[in-house]
Amino acid sequence: MSPSLHSDVFEALGRRIAAGDLPIGGTLTLEWIQTEFGVSRSIARECVKSLESMGLVESRRRAGILIRPASEWDALSPTLIRWQLDADPRGPKLGALNEMRAAIEPVAAAAAARRATESERTRILELAARLRAEGAKDDLTDFLATDIKLHSAILAASHNDTFYALRELVAEVLAGRTRLGLYPAHPEPIALDLHDEVARAIATGSSEAAEDAMRALVAEVREALLEKGLRGFLTTD
């Protein structure tokens, strides 16, 4: 089986399901997948298994491959999140993810202030300084990469394995906002200031200040997304 061919078909099917082009409650067959994508039965079967692992479909004997309700999908899958954001950039998914960040990241920052090692505190300060320097450039590529590293470092420094397990999800949210044109051409000064505040609070072991600064940072993102016309959870107080 060609890994590339499997990946291409899996990606195409997943995106169609996430976008609603293949509707919830509908059914597929291996034969349809083979014909639609010109692949072998074994590749079609492996693609279905991959989609099943994400909760998108369910194979039923004599009934075909059922597309499951969205409530049963793996909502924390970074791959599925990317598909959903690409399908509806201003839809409710990004708002829901920002609500999740508001619930998790401030607490993780507070935990990092209490538990981080000296080397972790130093790295977080270095990443915040690098983020500010890269924010002055015209290209957001390096800025985004550093932003992802900084948030991942904070989750790691919390020494809470459940928080750290969410790092790829947070990275996909940050990347998606930039990829979909929902990030300003130049980072807002307040956002850079808040990243600095979070880093300094963690470095000095001030858990309350770290939590407050991270909460303010996520709230700033919320307001920026609302200004971009985001729909869904963000508009509900």
TrEMBL record:
Top-level taxon of origin: Bacteria
Organism: Schaalia turicensis ACS-279-V-Col4
Keywords, ordered alphabetically: DNA-binding, Transcription, Transcription regulation
Classification via InterPro entries: GntR_C, TF_FadR/GntR_C, Tscrpt_reg_HTH_GntR, WH-like_DNA-bd_sf, WH_DNA-bd_sf
Domain HTH gntR-type: 3-70
PANTHER family the UniProt entry points to: GNTR FAMILY REGULATORY PROTEIN, TRANSCRIPTIONAL REGULATOR, GNTR FAMILY
One MF annotation (Gene Ontology) recorded for this entry: DNA-binding transcription factor activity
Protein name listed in UniProt: HTH gntR-type domain-containing protein
Matches recorded under SUPFAM superfamilies: GntR ligand-binding domain-like, Winged helix' DNA-binding domain
A Pfam family of this chain: GntR
